[in-house]
Automatic annotation (TrEMBL), chains A, B:
It comes from Formosa sediminum. Residues 6-159 form the Nudix hydrolase domain. Pfam families: WHD_NrtR. SUPFAM superfamilies: Nudix, Winged helix' DNA-binding domain. The lineage of its organism: Bacteria, Pseudomonadati, Bacteroidota, Flavobacteriia, Flavobacteriales. This is NUDIX hydrolase. GO terms for molecular function: hydrolase activity. Gene3D superfamilies: Nucleoside Triphosphate Pyrophosphohydrolase, Winged helix-like DNA-binding domain superfamily/Winged helix DNA-binding domain. Keywords: Hydrolase. InterPro entries: NUDIX_hydrolase-like_dom_sf, NUDIX_hydrolase_dom, WH-like_DNA-bd_sf, WH_DNA-bd_sf, WHD_NrtR.
Length: 245, 245
DNA sequence: ACAAAAGTGTTTGCATTACACCCATGG
DNA sequence: CCATGGGTGTAATGCAAACACTTTTGT
């Protein structure tokens, strides 16, 4: 028997992916398209976050994990529930109303929003059934529902979180250069960082481990590769209580 | 006409209050009590967070604000939505099931949890219709539903948040001593802080303003009183991008 | 005068910032 | 040999941490 959907509670997923070559932070969005059955007029044509209404027997985390699994084929990604959105008018645009009627959901749906961090190269979008596509977080397409607001809040949370937790490495390949990490911080935070100071800082961390390997296939001096060791990080981690107000 | 309640979505409020004299961080809880109509047997006797199911025409923030207003008579308190709880088995204890049947809610309710910070002395519990009572966050009574878990997560969030934002002053009277602030940090974080270093740090902040006033009615040397100026804080605030991973 | 809590300075080390040039490699 | 990006060192500053005694007041 099919599990019962709860029609007024959903989970939406902001999937962040970093493109190491273009140095852009991207969000994975799916196409929303609907034509009138009679006139072939285009009724809805935009993008939305991936998301599902929750099932009766499912935790919120489960729903989010399921959504990502179906979108990307991947599980055990970094995931964070960051906020619930429940304004009564969040789905009341004309387009959204048409869409909702078509899908049979409740127009007063509260959504629990998650964000995911993902190594872009791990996703194969070629044979994706949702026409999923990456968009730079700073240059989003037209979005349905209140999804633009959701993405921006996820992004704010990510900006803060990446300063104090080593989640940045979720967005990079397993082997990376110090400059990759710097570029990524710069993309996320929108700031410039001094390269010498940044290198020193990172290289001094015991959980940033130099490999016996250098870049290959680059047309200039190949850079030293490093990996991040979560084990070492967890071992040496200690909470600090620095009050900085 | 009465607004329509949504039976499977609620808001729960963790209300933190600090007792300056006892130096304890407390949570405001309400009594949950039910006797069997026939045998007078006590069916439910414990405490829960204050919370409401949301109305059709209400934002989540509105519901939270309404709950606090009815509980304490106060509005415009510091409020933070910190997490949604939606496990399918979060309300399945026997006691909880009895209670839910009595109240007519859905056993699969997702709750959006908020926490509030409040100056304890601003609340008058004497004539409170909910038998609300303060409990130390480190010594909670028996709690219904999953409310203990909710309180603990709120507390974790508060611990982190108070390190980087000046929310601590929401828990103190308008006029406070430096040692009050230190005691409060110590209560929240469960650590000891060096008094000389802490004083220097605080007194150097431009938004900690010394008043032409000292404590009165204390039986020892009266301390200098200070106030917190949010205006000054907002003016001099600047985001820093210190990466500390 | 005594008890209790308020208040006060200095030193040391560490982390952050600012800053400019040489090096190694592939083409 | 040259263009490109990788990689390197030092000095100045500011902040945090450690640490113990004197002062003020009310009783």
């Amino acid at each position: 028997m099919k599990p019962q959907k709860i029609k007024n509670i959903s989970v939406d997923c902001v999937v962040f992916g970093y493109n190491t070559l273009e140095k852009t932070l991207n969000v994975l969005l799916i196409k929303r398209y609907l034509e009138s059955a009679t006139t072939a007029e285009v009724l809805v044509d935009d993008y939305v976050l991936t998301g599902y209404h929750i099932n009766e027997d499912e935790t919120l985390d489960d729903t989010a994990t399921r959504a990502l699994k179906e979108l990307t084929g991947l599980s055990s990604l970094y995931k964070k529930q960051f906020k619930a959105f429940g304004s009564p008018d969040r789905l009341l645009n004309d387009k959204d109303q048409i869409w909702i009627k078509n899908e049979g959901f409740n127009s007063r749906t509260v959504t629990i929003a998650y964000y995911f961090l993902i190594k872009t190269e791990a996703v194969n979008l070629k044979e994706n059934k949702y026409s999923a596509k990456w968009f730079p977080v700073n240059n989003l397409p037209e979005l349905g529902f209140d999804h633009e607001a959701i993405i921006l809040e996820a992004y704010e949370d990510l900006k803060i979180k990446c300063l104090s937790e080593p989640i940045i490495f979720e967005l990079l390949p397993n082997k990376f250069t110090i400059n990759d990490v710097q570029d990524l911080y710069q993309s996320i935070l929108g700031i410039e960082i001094d390269n010498r100071n940044f290198r020193r800082k990172l290289i001094n961390k015991k959980y940033i481990i130099p490999l016996d390997e250098k870049q290959v296939g680059v047309s200039k001096k190949p850079a030293q590769l490093y990996m991040f060791s979560k084990d070492v990080y967890d071992k040496i981690f200690e909470k600090n209580y620095l009050i900085s107000i």
